[in-house]
From TrEMBL:
One of its GO terms (biological process) is autophagy. It holds the Pfam family Ras. One of its GO terms (molecular function) is metal ion binding. GO terms for cellular component: autophagosome membrane; cytoplasmic vesicle; cytosol; endomembrane system; perinuclear region of cytoplasm; spindle. It comes from Phocoena sinus (Vaquita). Its EC number is 3.6.5.2. This is Ras-related protein Rab-24. InterPro entries: P-loop_NTPase (IPR027417), Rab24 (IPR041828), Small_GTP-bd (IPR005225), Small_GTPase (IPR001806). It is found in: Cytoplasm, Cytoskeleton, Spindle; Cytoplasm, Cytosol; Cytoplasm, Perinuclear region; Cytoplasmic vesicle, Autophagosome membrane. The small GTPases Rab are key regulators of intracellular membrane trafficking, from the formation of transport vesicles to their fusion with membranes. Rabs cycle between an inactive GDP-bound form and an active GTP-bound form that is able to recruit to membranes different sets of downstream effectors directly responsible for vesicle formation, movement, tethering and fusion. RAB24 is an atypical RAB protein that presents low GTPase activity and thereby exists predominantly in the GTP-bound active state. RAB24 is required for the clearance of late autophagic vacuoles under basal conditions. It catalyses: GTP + H2O = GDP + phosphate + H(+). Interacts with ZFYVE20. Does not interact with the GDP dissociation inhibitors ARHGDIA and ARHGDIB. The lineage of its organism: Eukaryota, Metazoa, Chordata, Craniata, Vertebrata. It is a lipid-anchor. The keyword Oxidoreductase does not apply.
Amino acid sequence: MSGQRVDVKVVMLGKEYVGKTSLVERYVHDRFLVGPYQNTIGAAFVAKVMSVGDRTVTLGIWDTAGSERYEAMSRIYYRGAKAAIVCYDLTDSSSFERAKFWVKELRNLEEGCKIYLCGTKSDLLEEDRRRRRVDFHDVQDYADNIKAQLFETSSKTGQSVDELFQKVAEDYISVATFQVMTEDKGVDLGQKANPYFYSCCHH
Ligand SMILES: Nc1nc2c(ncn2[C@@H]2O[C@H](COP(=O)(O)OP(=O)(O)OP(=O)(O)O)[C@@H](O)[C@H]2O)c(=O)[nH]1
């Protein structure tokens, strides 16, 4: 992958152990690694080429370390990111508090970064619904407030993992198309009020 152009810088953020690395593993290699948990040190990078309609998009994914010890380093990795997948563990309420911390930072410091909230380990809820510690509707309200997309995923079963990354790529294409239309063709931004113009750029 070295030397390949990356279209979208994506950063994975969230408390340690929420399953960021597992999410990337499932998406990129379609596998779920079992065995002892190994925390990420610093950050890891992987690029993935994908299709959106007839377009090809290369996602450059930075998987950051969730440990607070590496907090300063994570800030370096989210700089310039176009998308942030902010993860929390559906069975751990403190991980959602940590997710809100990252959302606040991104909203203050990375205006151009689109936020995707991701509740992880949904398979554990299928086994036993009482394990849920983060209410879906509360998060949906929060997501609506901050204009974020919300996904609940399982890296173990693969549930909604492809959909999440596909949405990131689709949103990138929408924004890029919108920018080309406004910059190259001198489209008046006031036209956004026109429903046709708006719907062609926002799915
Ligand atoms: N049941 C279940 N377990 C998961 C899932 N995703 C991750 N895990 C487990 O949760 C633990 C932590 O997963 P990681 O992917 O290493 O977590 P992380 O967020 O990258 O952790 P840091 O690198 O410390 O930030 C591991 O034991 C995984 O096997 C999931 O979807 N379902």
